[in-house]
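Data availability (excerpt). All sequences and predicted token strings are deposited with the supplementary files. A representative entry, O-methylsterigmatocystin oxidoreductase, is shown inline so that the format can be inspected without opening the archive.
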Amino acid sequence: MAELSGWAEAILFVPYGPRLRSYRKLLYQTLNPRATLEFQDLQIQEVKKLMKRLLVHPGEFLDHAKLYAGAVSIRIAYGHTARDFNDEFIQGAEEFMSAVSEAILPGRWLVETIPSMRYIPSWFPGATFKRKAEKWAKMTAKHRQGPFDYVLKHMIEGTAEPSFTSKLLEPADGSQVSESEKEMIKIVASHLYGAGADTTASIIQSFFLAMTLYPDVQFKAQAELDSYLTTKRTLTIADREHLPYTHGVVMESLRWHPVTNIIARRTKEDEVVGEYIIPSGTYVIGNLWAMLHNAEIYRDPCVFKPERYLGDEPSPDPAIYGFGFGRRVCPGSHIGLQSLWLVISNILANFEISKLRTSDGEEITPGEEYTSGILSRPLPFKNIIKPRTMAARSMVDEVEI
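Structure token line:
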């Protein structure tokens, strides 16, 4: 289905080889640790908008997290500012991700088992898969080309905001970009939303759940923040090294309920592991949940404990596993971690998150329940989110959405 839908060269489906290495080179050029800092200002702008939305409509915090993550991904990819879910760039990206999610469902399409079915005409009875694929191919072409043309237009007009696409189309060394390179830039840029939006949103949503369930953790982080901050301001990535417990909250948000519980890899050649021979072409499943909940490495693994990363013998950084591993490790881990730090630290500094109460004053504890799809996120739950102080309210209220 991937090939029929025009995704054969998509970064998600292309096999390891020269093309994937070229894709990853493009990503590293713009998303390496140093380059990532160039996107901090836009991330902070979106964090401020997120906090304003929390102030105005606190009950919609799960949606606010998703809009923040989507808006950041779109701005990084194309320099376009998305203000709500009706934004055409976000709509196009969501449509694309929905199609991919449907296409890769195991056992969903008979053509995956009988490849010769791909030659059946789309009008033929039972060729629903062919009609779907044709629709998705047209949608994919539009999803790639429209935002790319947007960047080109603004570059010509001299109004383009720095982005993944604009930086690669206009290299700092002044070199010319070939047509084949432009095509690769277009393809990779179109995947930044899917790679960053859903994963970042899910982790932020888990953070909201953790702070609702673990008020003592929230209190400790806020005590650290209050001791460190001498004036009310927006925290930046430069503050991270001075706030170890708060950084631990970010790390634990990655580990506690991983966004992806398993990942698949395929062997390129025969592998010998102990007494076993794993033939070339075998799919090997990595169980990220088990790795991040190994009690020998993370004591009390089901408990949200930021202090596990402190002291003389800290637990391993969960990002080692949380962003995948091997040749297909997520190349956007630096920008993702920066985004999470900016969101979580600033929300903790400015907002109090607590459980709802009944009319009798009894706390309502939300369940620790998650979806079971390819990406795992908390099922909808309710809490109370309010500014910690009048100073925090005033600072957040000044933001224009």
